[in-house]
Design a protein that fits this description.
This protein is mostly helical. It is built from 6 helices and 3 strands. Strands 1-3-2 form a 3-stranded mixed β-sheet. Helix 1 packs across helix 5 and helix 5 crosses helix 6.
Length: 129
């Protein structure tokens, strides 16, 4: 039995595994996504999303969805997926899901935003990843 919570580095490693398992049509567009694991979303992000409880946000995609990109994107910040460690760990304890399954769910959901997918499409992608 594990005596310490998974570290940010362990969560990032699991998230990178998810990205590597993505089906070919998606994987080609994910090579430059930056993964960031933080304890919680910052206050500005929570306020912008109108989330009062910092445990209410497990992940967030920052960037422009693939379908909305123009041909001149030079100088733009790279797309980022933020994973919030403490809310993920809290949900992990509450749900009884494996950490790998939960990380897969969060990463696929954020990748779905990157591609502008519907929730239905995200669920299908989650099963493929």
């Amino acid at each position: 039995m594990r005596e310490q919570a998974p570290t940010a580095a362990e969560i990032e490693a699991l998230a990178r595994e998810v990205l590597q398992r993505m089906p070919a049509p998606f994987a080609a567009h994910l090579a430059n996504i930056v993964l960031v694991v933080e304890e919680f979303a910052d206050e500005e992000t929570l306020a912008e999303l109108e989330i009062e409880d910092p445990f209410g946000l497990t992940g967030l995609y920052h960037g422009q969805p693939v379908g909305e990109r123009g041909s001149t994107q030079s100088g733009a910040m790279p797309d980022r997926i933020h994973l919030y460690r403490r809310p993920i760990l809290d949900e992990w304890c509450d749900t009884g899901d494996t950490l790998k399954a939960l990380i897969t769910h969060v990463v696929v959901h954020e990748v779905g935003h990157h591609f502008g997918l519907s929730d239905k499409d995200m669920h299908a992608l989650e099963h493929q990843a």
